[in-house]
């Protein structure tokens, strides 16, 4: 009887609310997964810097006169020796012609004096010793005068050459500061144009003083590659090498200044521009890495969601090292081959069931090559 009553009671409870659905298990949380990988990870130091011209020249006149011609366009790429401006050369040409004429006159005089000296020498005892000595002195004096004439010719030719103003270096011209028809003089402070050399070009940037040892060891081992990126870290502009570490640390800021050179054939770097830098100081050969976004910050420190064989996510405390090219080195807490939640952690809790949602583009799994721009921006932010 009791068994029958119990069965009837259970049947009544089951069918008391026929329209109420049975409780369902929670749906899996859609996430993007990534593998924990082991392989070489570049050691990259980030910094901020300013582009500087390799050389900067303010072109001024070295002689006085009227500008007859301007031989360049503003912003033009010029080569060493190209015509920049022409100053009226006539006064300097006249001075050169005058110096040449004076030398010709003195050469004629010394020729005559030498002939007289030769006659006095042949006369022997018929010419007094005083006459011979005086004529010898005259020849020497006129010979020295010819040397002075040649120096005057060289000086006049130099002044004449200054009337043709040529580019002293390869570079890019700036604004034209003086127009045709103006009178210029060597004492004036205003330049005709400024030329900046941009091939090659420098980037001067800073690094914390605690990175100095790593940089110096890299320099001692060989060339140190440096990449210049846009200030937002989204676009790589050029690749060069580290040339100089400054000879002292700035005690006020605790930083060291460094200078890198770039070929800059495409003129992607421009003097005065702000850039971010990435200095590659070496490689960690067997680094355990995960995508940057897999690393989460919690009240007790850093962690990552590890997914087990039953697709359940578990919080795993981790310790991390450096971050490069969109991947972060994990020094403790994870092993190669494990699956971690890469995206979608905001809806994941401890022990939650997850299901992988394939992204439109796969992550960069190899630390040997550069990640996409979004991952690089994330790396720089860290």
TrEMBL record:
<keyword id="KW-0175">Coiled coil</keyword>
<dbReference type="InterPro" id="IPR058626">
    <property type="entry name" value="MdtA-like_b-barrel"/>
</dbReference>
<feature type="domain" description="YknX-like C-terminal permuted SH3-like">
    <location>
        <begin position="287"/>
        <end position="355"/>
    </location>
</feature>
<feature type="domain" description="Multidrug resistance protein MdtA-like beta-barrel">
    <location>
        <begin position="200"/>
        <end position="278"/>
    </location>
</feature>
<dbReference type="Pfam" id="PF25944">
    <property type="entry name" value="Beta-barrel_RND"/>
</dbReference>
<keyword id="KW-0472">Membrane</keyword>
<dbReference type="Pfam" id="PF25989">
    <property type="entry name" value="YknX_C"/>
</dbReference>
<feature type="domain" description="Multidrug resistance protein MdtA-like alpha-helical hairpin">
    <location>
        <begin position="96"/>
        <end position="163"/>
    </location>
</feature>
<comment type="similarity">
    <text>Belongs to the membrane fusion protein (MFP) (TC 8.A.1) family.</text>
</comment>
<dbReference type="InterPro" id="IPR058624">
    <property type="entry name" value="MdtA-like_HH"/>
</dbReference>
<keyword id="KW-0997">Cell inner membrane</keyword>
<feature type="coiled-coil region">
    <location>
        <begin position="96"/>
        <end position="123"/>
    </location>
</feature>
<dbReference type="Pfam" id="PF25876">
    <property type="entry name" value="HH_MFP_RND"/>
</dbReference>
<feature type="domain" description="Multidrug resistance protein MdtA-like barrel-sandwich hybrid">
    <location>
        <begin position="55"/>
        <end position="196"/>
    </location>
</feature>
<protein>
    <submittedName>
        <fullName>RND transporter</fullName>
    </submittedName>
</protein>
<dbReference type="GO" id="GO:1990281">
    <property type="term" value="C:efflux pump complex"/>
</dbReference>
<keyword id="KW-1003">Cell membrane</keyword>
<dbReference type="Pfam" id="PF25917">
    <property type="entry name" value="BSH_RND"/>
</dbReference>
<dbReference type="InterPro" id="IPR058637">
    <property type="entry name" value="YknX-like_C"/>
</dbReference>
<feature type="compositionally biased region" description="Low complexity">
    <location>
        <begin position="360"/>
        <end position="382"/>
    </location>
</feature>
<feature type="region of interest" description="Disordered">
    <location>
        <begin position="355"/>
        <end position="382"/>
    </location>
</feature>
<dbReference type="InterPro" id="IPR058625">
    <property type="entry name" value="MdtA-like_BSH"/>
</dbReference>
<dbReference type="GO" id="GO:0015562">
    <property type="term" value="F:efflux transmembrane transporter activity"/>
</dbReference>
<dbReference type="InterPro" id="IPR006143">
    <property type="entry name" value="RND_pump_MFP"/>
</dbReference>
């Amino acid at each position: 009887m009791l068994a029958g009553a119990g069965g009837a009671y259970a049947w009544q409870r089951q069918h008391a609310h026929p329209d109420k659905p049975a409780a369902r298990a929670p749906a899996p949380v859609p996430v993007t997964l990534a593998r924990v990988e082991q392989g070489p990870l570049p050691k990259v130091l980030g910094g901020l810097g300013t582009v500087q011209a390799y050389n900067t020249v303010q072109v001024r006149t070295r002689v006085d006169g009227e500008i007859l011609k301007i031989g360049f366009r503003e912003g033009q790429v010029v080569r060493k020796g190209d015509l920049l401006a022409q100053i009226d050369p006539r006064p300097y040409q006249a001075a050169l012609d005058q110096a040449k004429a004076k030398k010709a006159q003195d050469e004629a005089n010394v020729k005559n004096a030498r002939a007289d000296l030769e006659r006095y020498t042949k006369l022997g005892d018929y010419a007094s010793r005083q006459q011979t000595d005086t004529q010898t002195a005259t020849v020497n004096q006129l010979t020295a005068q010819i040397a002075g004439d040649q120096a005057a010719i060289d000086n006049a030719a130099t002044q004449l050459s200054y009337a043709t103003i040529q580019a002293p270096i390869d570079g890019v011209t700036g604004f034209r500061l003086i127009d045709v028809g103006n009178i210029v003089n060597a004492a004036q402070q205003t330049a005709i144009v400024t030329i900046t050399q941009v091939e090659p070009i420098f980037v001067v940037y800073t690094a914390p003083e605690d990175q100095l040892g790593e940089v110096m060891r890299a320099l001692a081992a060989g060339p140190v590659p440096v990449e210049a990126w846009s200030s937002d870290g989204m676009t790589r502009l050029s690749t060069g090498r580290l040339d100089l570490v400054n000879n002292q640390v700035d005690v006020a800021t605790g930083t060291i200044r460094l200078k890198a050179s770039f070929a800059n054939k495409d003129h992607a770097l421009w003097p005065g521009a702000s850039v971010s830098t990435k200095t590659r100081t070496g490689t960690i050969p067997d680094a355990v890495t995960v995508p940057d976004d897999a690393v989460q910050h919690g009240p007790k420190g850093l962690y990552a969601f590890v997914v087990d064989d039953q697709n359940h996510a578990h919080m795993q405390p981790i310790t991390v090292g450096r971050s490069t090219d969109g991947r972060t080195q994990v020094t403790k807490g994870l092993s190669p081959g494990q699956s971690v939640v890469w995206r979608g952690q905001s809806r994941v809790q401890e022990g939650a069931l997850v299901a992988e949602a394939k992204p439109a583009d796969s992550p960069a799994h190899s630390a040997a090559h550069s990640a996409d721009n979004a991952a690089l921006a994330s790396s720089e932010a860290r």
